[in-house]
Description:
Blueprint: H1 3-10, H2 13-16, H3 29-46, H4 53-60, H5 71-78, E1 84-88, H6 94-102, E2 105-109, H7 126-132, H8 140-155, H9 160-177, H10 183-198, H11 205-218, E3 221-223, E4 228-230, H12 233-236, H13 239-244, E5 251-254, E6 272-276, H14 279-290, H15 294-297, H16 299-309, E7 313-316, E8 321-332, E9 343-356, E10 359-360, E11 368-373, E12 382-387, E13 392-400, E14 403-411, E15 414-415, E16 421-427, E17 432-435, H17 440-447, H18 457-469, H19 472-487, H20 492-501, H21 509-518, H22 522-529
Parallel strand pairs: 1-2, 3-6, 5-6, 11-16
Antiparallel strand pairs: 3-4, 7-8, 7-17, 8-9, 9-10, 9-11, 12-13, 13-14, 14-15, 14-16
Helix pairs in contact: 3-19, 6-8, 8-11, 8-14, 9-10, 9-18, 19-21, 20-21, 21-22
Cofactor: Fe(2+)
GO molecular function: iron ion binding; oxidoreductase activity, acting on paired donors, with incorporation or reduction of molecular oxygen, reduced pteridine as one donor, and incorporation of one atom of oxygen
InterPro entries: ArAA_hydroxylase, ArAA_hydroxylase_sf, Aro-AA_hydroxylase_C_sf, Aromatic-AA_hydroxylase_C
Amino acid sequence: MTPTERTIARLPAHLRRYVVGQDYAAYTPRDQAVWRHILGQLREHLSDKAHPVYLEGLEATGIGAEAIPSLDEMNEKLSTLGWSCVAVRGFIPPAVFTELQALGVLAIAADIRTHEHIQYTPAPDIVHESAGHAPIIANARYAQYLKAVGLVGFKAIASVEDQAVFEAIRNLSVVKEDPTATEEEIAHAQARLEAANASHRYISESTRASRLYWWTAEYGLIGDLKHPRIYGAGLLSSIGEARHCLTSAVHKLPLGVACADTDYDITRMQPQLFVARDFEHLFEVLAEFESTLAWKRGGDLGLNEALRARTVNHLVLADGREVTGKVVELLPAAKDVAPGLSTALARLEGPILTSMNGHALDKPFSGAALVAFGQGTLPERGSFTLTLDSGLVLEGFAVGGGEVIALRGTLAGQELTLPSMARLYLTERLPSVAGGPADPGTWDEWFGEMDAFTAGDGEAQARERKAQALPPSLAALYTEVRRIRETGQLASERLEQIARASTDFPTDWLLRAEVAELRGEVPARREAAQA
């Protein structure tokens, strides 16, 4: 098995199905020229502006300047750092990205930007994911932070509106990278994103976690506030952002948990950035942020966060059991049941999955679930009456495995409308409420998309259209220039002929830059880079 195949084999099935082959042979000579140009510009510009580990980190993670990196070679290098990588297609669901990162796996978008978007692209690509994220992993403390912030993002509760925004962002990035997209299609995609953003009823935990990630791992600066250095992947992988971010046009703020309340726009350069004192500072801010999440606080805060999210989440009970479902109703208790908990009953909409330590205890239950808070014991079988300190009284018949029928109940003397059949759980405390299912693998097996690659169809189609948009005669010139570069057989007369032929493609400055560099005309290459 190759290093990449070994990495994929170690992944759980629900993550493995988002992985695609890198298909290295599909990169065109122009793709390779795009990579060379960006890496050459970045290495030159960032040598004294990025965190000191940047240049050695490129070497340590298998990223060279001459050719798009092979993920097999990257995995050989990353394994010595306790990391690995896999190829994915475009945007993947946030929960998948963050879970992979928490496991120490970089999700690398296999495609590469076009030369028209060489300065900056809102779409994930191999430049951003490899040359941006990987180098700073060579710093062990930062590598730990990436895993930790990935886990926090994975545990944060997302809302239904977050999903709509994710789909709109993915659609916009695909449309912008599609050479056949019309102005009307681009405008519609932009309007869709604006509408999705406007639909937010509140700022979810997941949104705040993504902002923290953005202002640190993606767009973070480090060191002295007046003379910081770059460590964020979005800055390290964008020629335009790398040049712009350290200028006086960008407001520099000390990093604090307030960054999680600062929105960002992926379609433009950022007007302000946050500066961390050092990598230890990242952990201080992360701990402060993490302490606000339902994952850590549980109780009423967690229940209310899950209720307003309208998404699948899981409750962790006092005995360690995890109940996955959608919280749809909360009934208040007459008095506090436990510190931070004054809820008598929570109703969850099915399907319901019971698990322990992230592993399902049985198959999902299609009906509703009730979580009653207080001291009491549900018999395994037979009639029961539960009277809890919260003022809740439940009566019914237990058929086994926590399933109850003929359920009736009152709260503070008022009769309740309850499902006639449900799963009933009792717990004295609620230590945690976290985002998504507690056992993602089992949940995905029962309820996941039948084809994970459907999500990547748009990206794949855009990639195919980009390849088709390259005129064959121009592609042939790029191929010849690449061959000359790789063989080292310079023929000045032939290079002159290629230079003249390139004038037939006035907007393709990159080919002229490649030829000028081979001819030793470095100034010409630099001028082309500004085109």
